[in-house]
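ok trying this again, last paste got cut off
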Amino acid sequence: MDLRCVYTDLDGTLLGHGASLFTDHEGNFSMMQARALEACSRAGVEVVIMSGRRRVQVHEDARIIGQTSFIFEAGSAFEIDRDLTMMTGDFELDPGLNVVEQMSGRGVPEMLFDAYPGKLEFHEPWHEGREMSHLFRGEVDTKDANSLLEEAGHSDLRLLDNGAIHRRMDGIETAHCYHLVPRGVSKARAVAAHAKARGYEKEETIAVGDSVEDLEVAPSVGKFFVVANGPERDPGVKSAMADFDNVTVTEGRSGDGFYEAVVATLMS
């Protein structure tokens, strides 16, 4: 089947050093991402950002690359032509509070900070203004953290790993970015729901990412591409790849890898 849609992470994938669309992984000016986006446009292929960023941020990112749909806050919701679809699953929404306010009211962030002193903190300043997910940075075992949440009566929530970041923390060699979300939230579910809404067959879609959480999308698409910097920076990505049979690691890093994934698929 012909390619109809590319789902892509932003930081470390579509975006290069400094979160720029026009830099490569080392920070040199690059047109590779733009050329890949042009190739998609010429072929009539939709490009959908799947990001942990807030709705307003991802909306602007999607607008800049000429797209009208996007997935935000780690799969908590997606938008198609200004039509919003929530993906919070069985989480009981309070009409007077957003999801972040509800989690804060239950004291969940403080419980996690107490459980992992010096290992977990808000990912300042990007944790502010969020509605669907708390954003942290640090170094924790998500399986352990999710067991703790369940034991404390918060089984409707989960902590997910959105990959290694460049921000340094004392005593931590490689900090990761984490999202606290309703348990049913994932980029994978959002991708599958978006594809269904658009009428795409799984074989007509690919995804590109750099983290363990991105890899969860693999079963929802025909092929998943991990950009080379993913497993280079986080050994957990390499380990997680063994769980899927449709994953390829690109030779290029960040935007170069995105370009490689798009062009290789269009030419196949």
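PB: full thing came through this time. Residues 99-182 form a domain with the Hypothetical Protein Ta0175; Chain: A, domain 2 fold (CATH 3.90.1070).
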